[in-house]
Design goal:
Shape of chain B: globular
Distance between the termini of chain B: 21 Å
Oligomer: heterodimer
Strand content of chain B: 25-35%
Mean pLDDT of chain B: 90
Bound molecules: adenosine-5'-triphosphate, magnesium ion
Strand content of chain A: 35-45%
Order of helices and strands of chain A: HHHEHEEEHHHEEEEEEEEEEEEEEEEHHH
Number of helices of chain A: 10
Helix content of chain A: 25-40%
Number of helices of chain B: 11
Chain lengths: ~450, ~260
């Protein structure tokens, strides 16, 4: 049987990746359970391949361009060129840049570059997964071999690939009753692809454990240069009773980047997670959040701002699983689409039979700035008991013409008026971020992203 | 030179071509206050919109000169920078943009256009403070998003505040008195009166003679079915208050169109 050219390119892409994963596993001597995990990842991926748009969870996102690109792993050694490029990119983070004093782990093309302890609270471990795997793998065995949370769709594909290439990431453990004030930073820099090289891929895995009544803010930032790259990033979090996580994801890669990210948070009773996603595009970007509320009275908050311009595709996929009584979730995702940019919001709220007195609110609002931009919104409520309060709403629209005229009637140019209104639309999400430095960075970044420049709105 | 000279202005709704303004003639000289009254739907707001450059209307005939320049050829923001200000009948809510930031952006845009130095944060706050007192605007409202959740009266006071800060040459007030209680009306009127000087012109659209007790007009015009059907002094407003519009609507056009303006068509 001959496959159509396109399908065969994808098929070859899968075969190439499988070959690379096998070669990689052979270079990493590991305990049997880890070998098994990688091998299982390889065979699962070999069987599944990349998701197609026939898969309901990937209906709006075509991965063929990703599948056709032959990505390679970076060699173990970080080159001088990579170091230099990484520093340059990191410096562009402004208030979150090189001089930022907090605890920080920096990767370049997936390999360790720098670790700053900052004023890390004693008893907290914040370390490279690779070191843990080398010296005391038993510490992470349970977390790594745990079955994927139910309904977490992309685990099937990218989770398998992540297992196959499992190598590094960050292990964070916050002891009981400990609060970390300063945000912990995990920074991934993809250096610009040097012309002679094949595009790089990174598969990274973070494991966070929050013990009872602990709390911390974690910022994951993904930076990149020009040229294609693939980031497959997964963060698994376990929150014990009463633990609180603020998670901020800044997706800031270049226009050719492919990015698939997953955050899965398991909430025990009374635990709270707030996720803030800021995604500024790439060739194809997929941000997945799976919040699983498996303790009574657990609460979660999901905020997201996704922006895409010409040639970009950003897909936000969220799942909130209410499994036990008296949980609550509040979700607000906003999309800003310009040029030929394409956005997707697919948000599911599942309320199980036992999850009585659940309070869930979901809102998706999208702003379309051009005639050729497009956004697909697919809110889904699946409720299995009657004693709940759930609301959801989704709107997609253009800038309010009356508001544009109002601003013009006060002297603002049409471009300034549109930029100000677009900024105001997105800034609602920035204001929710619990770190002044991150907010300051995002304010600048959003302003720079806008079609016309705006003066600094220091009044708000 | 006349501040505003509108001659035989015809304007239609762009979408369906319905003609709303059917030959407006109006001359405002520096320092004059003109009131426009007239029944609902007669075209008062449309006139205000067409003069301030709101999209959605087509001018099919006539001219409007602002200090001798072709007003209709200017985009809305240039009219604003040149000194035309419209206080909206229905001010727009702009979530996420603080009133203070908005005012500062606007004033500096306008000042730049007029060749004046931009105001820094401190100078701006001093200006804002003074003008906010004039309209008795509380500080809390200045820090909130533009008009978001403002009461009807607060929105109207915010319009007067913007006018005071932008310092226009011609202010068009579209029912700035509607929705104001007695005290708010007095405050808003005082704000407007404080801006009266020998040069600033005002076009005050209102349904109520009451406002004109505070802002005493030099001329009162009645707009009906897209035309000015009667003009007079402040006594006309009192007459309208007593008798309504019916006695006038079918009557002859009293305004003398500027002969030159009509002849030139
Ligand atoms: N954008 C528009 N589309 C359709 N019709 C319009 C539009 N703008 C104005 N009109 C119509 O034009 C007529 C004049 O409206 P306008 O708002 O100018 O009246 P007005 O004199 O200000 O009335 P009011 O006293 O109620 O404020 C009305 O019949 C109105 O419905
Ligand atoms: Mg009106």
């Amino acid at each position: 049987m001959t496959l159509p050219a396109r399908a065969s390119a994808i098929h070859d892409g899968v075969a190439t990746l499988v070959g690379r994963a096998n070669g990689f596993a052979a270079r990493r001597p590991s305990p049997p359970w880890l070998q098994k995990l990688r091998t299982a990842g390889v065979s699962a991926f070999e069987k599944l391949g990349f998701p197609s748009t026939n898969d309901e969870d990937w209906r709006f996102t075509n991965l063929a361009p990703l599948a056709r690109t032959a990505f390679v792993l970076s060699p173990d050694e970080v080159s001088l060129a990579e170091r230099t490029a990484a520093l340059e990119l990191e410096a562009r983070l402004g208030p979150l840049g090189l001089s930022s004093p907090g605890p920080r782990i920096v990767f370049v093309n997936g390999r360790p570059l720098r670790w700053n302890a900052g004023a890390l609270t004693s008893g907290v471990s914040f370390e490279w997964l690779k070191r843990v795997l080398a010296h005391s793998p038993e510490r992470v065995e349970r977390a790594l071999v745990a079955p994927a949370p139910e309904g977490d769709s992309s685990n099937k594909f990218f989770g398998a690939l992540g297992d196959a290439f499992l190598d590094d990431g960050v292990v964070l453990r916050v002891p009981a009753n400990t609060s970390i004030e300063e945000p912990l930073f995990i920074l991934h820099v993809a250096t610009p692809a040097w012309s002679s090289e094949a595009p790089r891929m990174v598969h990274t895995r973070n494991l966070f454990t929050f013990e009872e009544n602990s709390s911390a803010t974690v910022v994951e930032a993904y930076l990149g240069g020009s040229g294609p790259s693939l980031m497959n990033a997964r963060t698994d979090v376990t929150l014990a009773k009463g633990a609180r996580l603020n998670h901020v994801k800044l997706q800031l890669e270049g226009p050719e980047a492919f990015h698939v990210g997953q955050l899965a948070v398991d909430h025990a009773a009374g635990a709270h997670a707030a996720s803030h996603v800021f995604s500024f595009g790439g060739k194809v970007v997929r941000n997945e959040i799976a919040m699983s509320l498996r303790g009574e009275g657990a609460t979660t908050e999901l905020n997201g701002l996704f922006c895409a311009t010409s040639g970009q595709h950003v897909d936000c996929h969220t799942l909130i699983d209410h499994a036990l009584p008296r949980g609550s979730s509040v979700e607000l995702y906003k999309g800003v689409l310009d040029g030929t940019g394409r956005g997707v919001f697919d948000g599911k709220i599942l309320v199980r039979a036992g999850a009585v007195r659940t309070d869930a609110r979901q809102t998706n609002r999208n702003l379309v700035l051009s005639n050729s931009a497009l956004v697909d919104s697919k809110p889904q409520l699946e409720i299995h008991n009657n004693d709940v309060r759930c609301t959801h709403g989704s709107t997609t629209g253009r800038l309010d013409a009356d508001a544009v005229f109002y601003l013009r009637s006060r002297g603002l140019s049409p471009e300034a008026a549109r930029a100000l209104l677009t900024y105001a639309f997105g800034s609602e999400l920035i204001e929710k971020v619990p770190s002044a430095d991150v907010r300051a960075f995002l304010e600048n970044h959003l302003r720079a992203w806008l079609p016309a420049n705006l003066a600094a709105p220091e009044a708000r | 030179m006349n501040l505003l000279e509108v001659t035989n202005l015809h304007a239609a709704i762009e979408e369906d071509g319905t003609e709303i303004l059917k030959g407006i003639n109006l001359v405002i000289r520096p320092g004059e206050v003109h009131a426009i009254m007239g029944p609902n739907g007669s075209g008062k707001s449309t006139l205000a919109h067409v003069l301030s450059g709101r999209p959605g209307y087509t001018v099919t005939q006539g001219t409007a000169l602002f200090l001798g320049k072709d007003l209709l050829a200017m985009p809305a923001e240039i009219r604003a920078r040149e000194g035309v200000f419209l206080a909206f009948q229905y001010p727009v809510e702009i979530p996420g943009v603080s009133n203070t930031y908005f005012l500062r952006t606007a004033v500096n845009t306008v000042r730049k256009h007029r060749g004046q130095p931009e105001l820094d944060a401190i100078d701006f706050l001093a200006l804002l403070d003074g003008k906010a007192k004039l309209v008795e605007m509380e500080e809390a409202l200045l820090n909130r998003s533009v008009n978001e959740g403002f009461s009807g009266g607060e929105k109207k006071r915010n319009e007067v505040l913007q006018m005071a800060i932008l310092d226009p040459k011609l202010a068009i007030l579209d029912e700035t008195d509607s929705g104001l209680d007695i005290d708010a009306l007095r405050i808003a009127a005082a704000g407007v009166n404080a801006l009266r000087d020998g040069s600033r012109g005002m076009l005050v659209i209102t349904h109520y003679q009451r406002l004109l007790d505070y802002i005493i007009p030099d001329f009162v015009h009645v707009l009906s079915d897209g035309k000015i059907v009667k003009s007079g002094d402040k006594e006309l407003a009192k007459e309208l208050e007593a008798k309504g519009y019916s006695w006038i609507e079918k009557g002859p056009v009293v305004t003398a169109p500027t002969a030159a303006g009509v002849a030139s068509r």
